[in-house]
Design a protein that fits this description.
- It is a single chain.
- The protein has 2 domains: about 160 residues, Transcription factor LuxR-like, autoinducer-binding domain (Beta-Lactamase), CATH 3.30.450; about 55 residues, Arc Repressor Mutant, subunit A.
- Helices cover about 45% and strands about 10% of the residues.
- It has 10 helices and 5 strands.
- A hairpin with a 5-residue loop joins strand 4 and strand 5.
- Helix 1 runs parallel beside helix 6.
C-alpha cells in the first residue's frame, strides 16, 4: 500500500544541498506514489538544446545509454507531447499511435518502463521540461483514476520545478539559428497537425513532390532524419506554434 504524501517530504527538495541529494529525494517521493522510476529534465528555455538539460533519472542505465546515444529526445513522443501541451500524457499502448511512437514505447517496455505518466514542465521564466513517473507494474498513482492522484503528481511537478532552478546552468548556450522559408514552416505546421504529404499537398494546392521537397529542406536545415524530429525542433525553437 502506498503511504500518504507529506508536505515536508516535498520541502525536502529545497533542503537538498547537492543535485544528487535532490534527485534521491525526488526518487523517494516517486516510490511513495507507487513508481519504480522517475525522470526530471529541464532547460532554461525552448531555444536551448535539449542535450544540455539538467537531467536526473533512475531509469535503467542500458536504456539511458541507448536513449542518449541515439538522441531519442527528438523522437520521444512524451517530449513531443509536452512541448505542445500543458496536459499530462499517460503511458499505455493506446496512447502511442503510429509506427514510430509504438516502436519507441515497445523499446521502453523492454527495459521495464511499462506504465506511467509524463507531466509537462512550463516555468514562468520560460523554462521547459518533463517530469515522468514510470513503473514496471500496472498499479500506481496515475492509474487510480482519481483527481486527487493527478493533483498530487502536479504538486510534485511544481515543487520539482521551483527547487531545481538553482541547478540550471546560467551559461547554457542557445541553439544555432535556423531560418526556414514560409512554405517550409507551413508544411511543418500541417505535419504537426498529423497531416500526410498527400493531405498537405491538397490543402496548399501543390504537388505531393513539392511538399516532400519543402519537408526535406527543413529536415536538412535542422540536421534531423524524420519530419517528426523537424516538427519537434521547430516547436522548441518557437518557429511554429501548437494549434
Amino acid at each position: 500500500m502506498r503511504t500518504m504524501m507529506q508536505l515536508d517530504e516535498l520541502h525536502g527538495l529545497f533542503g537538498a544541498s547537492t543535485d544528487e541529494e535532490w534527485a534521491e529525494t525526488l526518487f523517494s517521493i516517486a516510490r511513495k506514489c507507487g513508481f519504480d522510476h522517475a525522470l526530471f529534465g529541464i532547460v532554461p528555455n525552448k531555444q536551448v538544446a535539449l542535450e544540455t538539460a539538467f537531467l536526473k533519472s533512475n531509469y535503467p542505465d542500458e536504456w539511458r545509454t541507448l536513449y542518449d546515444n541515439q538522441h531519442m529526445h527528438y523522437v520521444d513522443p512524451t517530449v513531443s507531447h509536452c512541448l505542445q501541451s500543458m496536459l499530462p500524457i499517460v503511458w499505455q499502448p493506446a496512447t502511442f499511435q503510429g509506427r514510430e511512437q509504438n516502436e519507441f514505447y515497445e523499446q521502453a517496455r523492454g527495459y521495464g518502463l511499462k506504465s506511467g505518466i509524463s507531466l509537462p514542465v512550463h516555468g514562468a521564466a520560460g523554462e521547459f521540461g518533463v517530469l515522468s513517473f514510470v513503473s514496471d507494474g500496472a498499479q500506481h498513482l496515475a492509474t487510480d483514476n482519481k483527481i486527487e492522484g493527478l493533483a498530487t503528481l502536479s504538486l510534485i511537478r511544481d515543487y520539482a520545478l521551483e527547487s531545481s532552478r538553482r541547478f540550471l546552468a546560467p551559461e547554457a548556450q542557445a541553439a544555432p539559428t535556423v531560418r526556414l522559408t514560409a512554405r517550409e514552416l507551413e508544411c511543418l505546421q500541417w505535419a504537426m497537425c498529423g497531416k500526410s504529404s498527400w493531405e498537405i499537398a491538397r490543402i496548399l494546392s501543390r504537388s505531393e513532390a513539392t511538399i516532400n521537397f519543402h519537408v526535406a529542406n527543413a529536415k536538412k536545415k535542422f540536421n534531423v532524419q524524420t519530419r517528426q524530429q523537424a516538427v519537434v525542433k521547430a516547436i522548441k525553437m518557437g518557429l511554429i506554434e501548437p494549434a
